[in-house]
């Protein structure tokens, strides 16, 4: 996702409702032969039919880094586990933590120095806000973090490798090198996986 204009720090970039959402804590039901993931797959397969054709297409278009078994439920569950963003129902005392999959926000790539964050979930409106953490220039990719940012670099890399199967090579993960003469220096280009870049129509 790429900014199509200057976005100021703190500004709302997009507000959108999830395509799908599931509890962050999934109990291990002993009566399901495939355990907790089988349970999630069944739930996603059943609920998928309730979505419109466009929403189904948007959901299936998202990146999936989880193992594939070939069933629709497995694919949908993998997409949800790859792209789910923490969505907290603050008014729920018993089960407040969910993972929501969003049509545009979930397409944002990771950076260890992200320029945006999707942390404001309004459980009354069932909508997530993506907001700028700093000023974002036109043409700049809008990024979020898939991990906690205050941990050490090694812990971040471990989490990204385990959960999302990639090694982050953003500019914040590059080792600091001694300065070279100007003619020898190169521009560092992040090579983390690109999901899909879409221009953003910004509305507040
Ligand atoms: Zn990084």
Automatic annotation (TrEMBL):
Gene3D superfamilies, A to Z: SET domain
Domain SET positions: 1-147
Superkingdom, natural source: Eukaryota
Classification via InterPro entries: SET_dom, SET_dom_sf, SET_domain_protein
UniProt xrefs under Pfam families: SET
Name this polypeptide is given: SET domain-containing protein
């Amino acid at each position: 996702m790429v900014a199509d204009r200057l976005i100021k720090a703190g500004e709302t970039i997009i507000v959108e409702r999830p395509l799908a959402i599931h509890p962050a804590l999934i109990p291990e039901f002993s009566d399901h032969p495939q355990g907790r993931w089988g349970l999630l797959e069944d739930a996603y397969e059943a609920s998928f039919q309730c979505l419109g054709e466009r929403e189904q297409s948007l959901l299936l278009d998202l990146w999936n880094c989880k193992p594939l078994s070939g069933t629709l439920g497995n694919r949908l569950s993998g997409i949800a586990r790859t792209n789910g963003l923490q969505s907290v129902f603050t008014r729920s005392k018993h089960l407040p933590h969910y993972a929501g999959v969003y049509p545009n926000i979930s397409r944002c790539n990771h950076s260890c120095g992200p320029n945006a964050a999707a942390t404001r979930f309004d459980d009354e409106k069932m909508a997530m806000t993506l907001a700028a953490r700093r000023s974002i220039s036109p043409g700049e990719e809008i990024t979020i973090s898939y991990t906690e940012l205050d941990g050490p670099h090694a812990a971040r890399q471990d989490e990204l490798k385990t959960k999302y199967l990639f090694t982050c090579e953003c500019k914040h993960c590059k080792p600091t090198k001694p300065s070279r003469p100007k003619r020898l220096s190169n521009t560092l280009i992040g090579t983390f996986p690109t999901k899909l870049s879409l221009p953003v129509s910004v509305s507040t």
